[in-house]
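Per reviewer request, we include the raw input and output of the structure prediction for the construct analysed in the revised manuscript.
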Amino acid sequence: MMNKKLRALIGPSILNSDLSKLYEESQKLLDNGADYLHLDVMDGHFVPNLTFGHPVVKCLRSKIKEAFFETHMMVSQPEQWIVPMAEAGVNQYTFHIEPITNVEEICRKIKENGMQVGLAIKPGTPVSEVEKYISIADMVLIMTVEPGFGGQKFMENQMLKVQHLRKHYPLLNIEVDGGVGPSTIECCANAGANMIVSGTAVIGAQDQANTINLLRTTVQQIIDKQ
C-alpha cells in the first residue's frame, strides 16, 4: 500500500459486525467502498478479549478473492501466526511491538512469507519505541483506544504521535484505530493519518457507503492540500 503520493484508505473493522454472517458483512463493506478489511485477531493474553484466528481468515479469503486483508494481531506471540496467516491469504500482518524484543526478526519473517509489515503501538507506548523500526515497516498503527474492545472513546492526545511521524516520515502510511468516525476524522486527518480503521461508526451506519465516502473524502482533501 506504499505510494509515492499518499492515499486516503478506509479499512472498516469487522469486529462490530454480525460475526455469524462474516462473509456477507465483509462483502457488504467492500461493496460500499471499503479499501481494505481490518481483521482484529486477539488471543486473550495480550488483550483480555478473544476473537478469531487463521482458520476463519482462510474461510473468508476463500470467498473474497481480491480484497486487501490486514490482520491486526493483538497477540503475545506474533511470530507464532506468521505462516498460518500468510497461508490464509493475509496481505498485511500488523503486530504490536510491546510484548516482544525481536521486532526485526519478526518483520523479516513476515516479508519472507510475502506479507507487508505493520507495526502497532498502544496509547501508553511512546512513539520513539516504534520509530526505531520504521525503515523495515510498511505502515505504523497508532491506537487511539486501548486495544481489545470496540466502541471506546477516541483519545485525541494520541494525535501528537501521528503528527510526529508525519512530520519526519512524509510518505509513511500511518493508520489510526479506535473511536474513529465522522466526528473525529478531521482530527485524525489534520494530524497526518491516511489509513483509517473505523468499526462502530461504519458498521452501525444507516448508510455505510455514505459514511465510508465521507471519511475518505475528508482525509484525501487534507492530504491534497499538503
